[in-house]
C-alpha cells in the first residue's frame, strides 16, 4: 500500500535543512582534517582496524591504470564488491553475486554480467575520478561481499541492507534501515530507488517506511509505504534489528575515533560476522528525517551540552530521549502500558491506622518513591519489612518474631499462625499469612495490601512482607499483579 507523497517542506520547523547542516554543523563540527577520515574509505578501514572495529575484508587495491593489467582475474572470489575509495552516494559501487560457470564473467544483482573488458573500463573510470567526491583521481579496491543476515534477507531484493545511524555529541540521535529494491538494482541507495525505514532508537524496531517518488526543483518527494515493493510483499513496520545495542555502541566509537561532531555511520550485518562498519559519512543525507517523521534539529537541541564519556550511558540517554514510538503504538492497540525490568514506583502509605480507642483515624505517613524489580518468575509481589513499617503498616511489628522464625515443618508453621491469631484476635493491616518453603527452611510471611503507582496506573497490590534489607530492591512485583502491563525484558534501565 502506498500513501500520499510528502517532502521536507510539509514537516515542522524542527527539521534540519541542507543550508543549516552545511553552515552550522559541517563547517563547525567537521573540519577538513577530520572529514578525510570519512571521505577516504581505505583510511577509515585502517583507523577502525587499529581500534579493533570490524569492517568488510579488503581483497585488492588498484591505484594506477597500469595495475589493472596485472590483475589475476582467476584468483578473485566468485562474489566481491568493487568500490571507489572516495565515492559518494553509492556511485561507482558494483556488487557481484557470482561467476558464470567456466567463464570470467561476474553476475550483478540485476542478473546482468560484466566481463574482464568491462571491469577494466570501470576500474579505469574510478581511477580517473569519475565517481570521486571532488572529481579528482581516485583509487579502486576490491572488498568482500557481505552475506545477508537471515532476519533482513527477506526484505532485500538481491542486495545487502544497511543501517544508517546519525550521531551528534557522541549520542546516536536517529536511525534508518535502508533496503535494496529491484528499482535500485540491488543497492540500498534511496536516491536509486531503495527503501528507507525509520528505526525506534529505544527498541531497534522499524517504524515508518519511505520510497522516493520523484525529484523536482523543490526537492525529493517521497511516498510513505507499508510493504516491500518486490515480491514477496512483506510489512516494513515492526522489524527487529539484530545486534541493536552493539550497533549503537559501534556508532559512538566511530564518532569518538573520527572526531567528527556530526556523523553518519553505515553498518551492515553479516550472517556470520555480525555488525560491520561499512563506511563513515561526514555529510549524511537528510531523508532519514522523513523515515522517522521527526526533525534532526529538534534532537540535536535535546542532546546539545550533554557530557558523557561512558558509552553505556550515552546509549541509555539515546534510548530514553529518542525511543517510545513503538511502545505508544502497542499501548494504543492493547490498552496496556509497557514497562521494563526495573521501574521507579510510588508506594502509598496505609490510609487508616487503628487508634488506642479501637477506632480508625487517617494516617500521617507519607508515600515513598523506590525502585522495584519486575519479576515475571515470581507469582506474588513482596515488600521490605522496614519500608512497610515506614508506610504505616505498624501491626507488622506485633508479628515480627513470627516471620523471622525458621520452622521444621509446614504443620508447625501453621500452628504458630493459629496461635498468633488467637492471641491478637484481629488484624487490620495484615490480610493473611502464607507459608514459604525454601532451601534454608520454612518461614511465615504476612500479607498486606498497598496502593502502588506504576507508570500511569495506581492499583492495589497484594504484597508478602519479608526482610529485604540486604537486597537491592525493596519491592518485587510478581506476575499476578501485572495483568494491566506489557513487559519489555530488554529494557533493564529505568525510564521514569
Average pLDDT for all residues? 86
What name is given to the CATH topology of the largest domain? Answer: D-amino Acid Aminotransferase, Chain A, domain 1
What's the CATH H-level homologous superfamily of the largest domain? Answer: ATP-grasp fold, B domain
Number of helices: 13
Distance between the termini: 37 Å
Quaternary: single chain
CATH arch. level architecture of the largest domain: 2-Layer Sandwich
Specify the helix fraction band.
Answer: 10-25%
Question: Which properties best describe this structure?
Answer:
496 residues, alpha+beta, D-amino Acid Aminotransferase, Chain A, domain 1, Dna Ligase, domain 1, Cathepsin D, subunit A, domain 1, 3 domains, 8-stranded antiparallel sheet, 6-stranded mixed beta barrel, 26 strands, 25% helix, elongated
Brief description of this entry?
The protein is of the alpha+beta class. It folds into three domains: 2-55 and 147-328, D-amino Acid Aminotransferase, Chain A, domain 1; 57-145, Dna Ligase, domain 1 (2-Layer Sandwich); 337-487, Acid Proteases (Cathepsin D, subunit A, domain 1). The chain is built from 13 helices and 26 strands.
Could you describe the 3D structure shown?
The structure is a single chain. The longest helix is centred in the middle third of the chain and has 15 residues, at 244-258. This protein has 13 helices and 26 strands. It starts with a strand and ends in a 9-residue tail after the last strand. The chain is elongated, with a radius of gyration of 30 Å. The chain folds into 3 domains: 2-55 and 147-328, D-amino Acid Aminotransferase, Chain A, domain 1; 57-145, Dna Ligase, domain 1 (2-Layer Sandwich); 337-487, Beta Barrel (Cathepsin D, subunit A, domain 1). The chain has 496 residues and is of the alpha+beta class. It has helices spanning 18-29, 32-39, 41-50, 65-68, 116-127, 244-258, 288-292, 296-303, 311-322, 325-334, 385-390, 400-404, 410-424; strands at residues 2-6, 58-62, 80-84, 94-96, 98-99, 105-107, 113-115, 140-143, 162-168, 171-179, 195-200, 205-215, 220-225, 262-270, 274-281, 337-339, 342-347, 352-354, 360-362, 368-375, 381-384, 432-438, 441-454, 457-466, 475-478, 485-487. Strand 14 (262-270) and strand 15 form a beta hairpin. Helix 2 crosses helix 3 (41-50) and helix 6 (244-258) packs across helix 9 (311-322). It has an 8-stranded antiparallel β-sheet, sandwiched between helices. The chain has a 6-stranded mixed barrel with strand order 17-20-25-21-24-23. Helices cover 25% and strands 30% of the residues.
